[in-house]
Write a structure and sequence with these properties.
By secondary structure, the chain is α+β, with helices and mostly antiparallel strands. The protein has 4 domains: 6-44 and 152-189, no CATH class; 47-147, Beta-Lactamase (2-Layer Sandwich); 215-305, Helix Hairpins (Orthogonal Bundle); 315-464, Heat Shock Protein 90. The chain is 54% helix and 15% strand. The protein has helices spanning 6-46, 50-53, 64-68, 98-104, 136-142, 149-201, 215-272, 278-309, 322-339, 359-376, 433-443, and strands at 72-76, 82-87, 113-121, 127-135, 318-321, 343-347, 354-357, 382-389, 393-400, 447-451, 457-464. The protein has a 5-stranded mixed beta sheet with strand order 6-8-9-11-10, with helices on one face. A hairpin with a 3-residue loop joins strand 8 (382-389) and strand 9. Helix 1 runs antiparallel to helix 6 and helix 10 (359-376) packs antiparallel against helix 11. The relative contact order is 0.07.
Length: 474
């Protein structure tokens, strides 16, 4: 797509308006100029009209302009006799008939002179007529040009002023329209951007910009929308994190309060001497010890989870045989599975599989998965410990055919204090095992997945062969 930049747009707009201005000048100037010339000529024409120059004392009639045009004046009395003449008449007349006088004003193609007549009254009350004669050639060809040098200069100056005024007027109009158009194309997007930024500052992260603009402003719009989308996502994550922390505090409080309440109750009974039977006293002491151990485990798990969740925590790893590591853990748990009548199967390659891992933390994660299987699988269930090697990764799986995990819990199964039965009962667990296991795998640049296909529950610990886990030897 062609990038329409602001500079290019401004150049195109200015060229368009310049061409428009030129066309306007070409059409308007001749018309305006002709009007100016006609207005400049009007005072001269008025000076040769009889009604403009007539005076009560006809000897005082101004004659200069008429004389300049080669004309003359005749004063007629009531009987149409010529009583006064000034100038050089084409033919000397002493009187006019009514018909002759009327014929002077009839328009016909052969007319040889311009005639103007106006009646007037002298101070003595006599009625006269002023008759102005100007040869037709002066009127048609020379009335605009047969002027004195001063008149020509005035005409030239007025023509220049009118031309400059016209040009400045059109230029000002052009600049105004061009500026308004250009400003709207720039300021409208800028106002939208400013409004969007204000909305963002007020926490309205769903704000998006949608305007048509040139390349640079369109880039700002795209960047703004991307930023708004990221901020909206961060805000949603922040809100979820705050809700999660709030829920965690509530659940920690619950899990701490339940065993503490039990410990306090049994200790109070022993303190008050309510229990006389030695066997019952020992039973209460066992309850207190078990609940104390549960509190210790819960606090340890909370501390471990907080440590793993810290971005500053660096997991120290060493190169070792993960196959032998899994065999040792399976051996430790074998008796517990047998006591609960669970069938434990182990599939581990006989060859070495060497990767970099932290033995203590990986033991914690893997043992949590086995402990979950022990806790939730009923007797005669099958549990499989499986170590697989593929081209891209190494998988350590714990698979059982127990009661399974509801689909509604798939999204939250790795959240802290989530239990498979969703019951907040004191069952000996802290609800942090899977969350710790997930964080341990993330610190190993791997991942922990839940797979509930084929009617089985499979937790898969996946280690990548690349991405900083170190060499792999078989």
């Amino acid at each position: 797509m062609k990038k329409n930049k602001i500079f290019t747009s401004l150049i195109k707009n200015y060229m368009l308006f310049s061409i428009t201005l030129g066309i306007m000048l070409c059409f308007i100037f001749p018309i305006f100029n002709s009007q100016i010339q006609s207005r400049l000529a009007e005072p001269t024409i008025l000076k040769v009209k009889a009604n403009e120059i007539v005076r009560k004392d006809y000897t005082q009639i101004p004659f200069e302009v008429i004389e300049a045009f080669g004309g003359w004046i005749e004063i007629l009395d009531e009987n149409l006799f010529v009583v006064y003449t000034k100038g050089n008449p084409a033919g000397h007349r002493t009187s006019y008939t009514q018909a002759e006088l009327i014929s002077l004003f009839n328009e016909h193609s052969g007319a040889t002179e311009y005639v103007s007549m106006a009646p007037f009254q002298t101070d003595e009350g006599r009625i006269y007529r002023c008759l102005v004669h100007i040869p037709q050639g002066y009127i048609t060809n020379e009335i605009e040009f047969h002027k004195t040098p001063a008149a020509l200069m005035r005409t030239f100056i007025m023509l220049v002023i009118s031309t400059v005024a016209l040009f400045l007027g059109l230029f000002g109009l052009n600049v105004y329209i061009y500026s308004r158009w250009t400003a709207l194309k720039i300021t409208n997007p800028l106002e939208a951007i400013a409004s969007g930024m204000q909305n963002m500052a007020n926490g309205r992260f769903r704000t998006r910009l949608a305007f048509k603009a040139d390349y640079e402003l369109a880039q700002i719009q795209d960047t703004f929308n991307n930023m708004a989308e990221q901020l909206e996502q961060y805000e949603a994550e922040k809100r979820m994190l705050e809700e999660s922390k709030q829920r965690m505090l509530v659940e920690i409080s619950h899990d701490l309060k339940t065993p503490i309440t039990t410990i306090q109750g049994y200790a109070k009974a022993l303190q008050l001497g309510i229990v006389d039977d030695e066997g019952q006293r020992q039973k209460y002491l066992d309850y207190i010890l078990n609940k104390s151990n549960l509190l210790t485990a819960l606090i340890d798990d909370i501390f471990e989870l907080a440590k793993l969740d810290s971005p500053d925590y660096i997991l120290e790893t060493e190169l070792a045989d993960v196959a032998e590591f899994v065999r040792e853990i399976a051996t430790q748990f074998y008796d517990q599975f047998e006591e609960k009548q669970l069938f434990l199967q182990v599939q581990i390659p006989s060859s070495e599989i060497r990767i970099r891992f932290n033995a203590k933390m990986l033991y914690r994660a893997f043992s949590n998965l086995l402990a979950n299987a022990l806790k939730y699988c009923p007797a005669r269930s099958e549990v499989l410990i499986q170590l697989l090697e593929t081209e891209s990764n190494i998988q350590l799986n714990v698979i059982d055919n127990g009661p399974g995990i509801p689909d509604t819990m798939n999204e939250i199964i790795f959240d802290p204090f989530t239990r498979g039965d969703q019951a907040r009962t004191s069952d000996g667990g802290t609800g942090l095992g899977l969350a710790i296991a997930k964080h341990v795998m993330e610190k190993h640049n791997g991942e922990l997945q839940l797979d509930t296909r084929d009617g089985q529950t499979a937790f898969r610990m996946i280690f990548q062969k690349i991405n900083g886990l170190g060499e792999h030897i078989t």
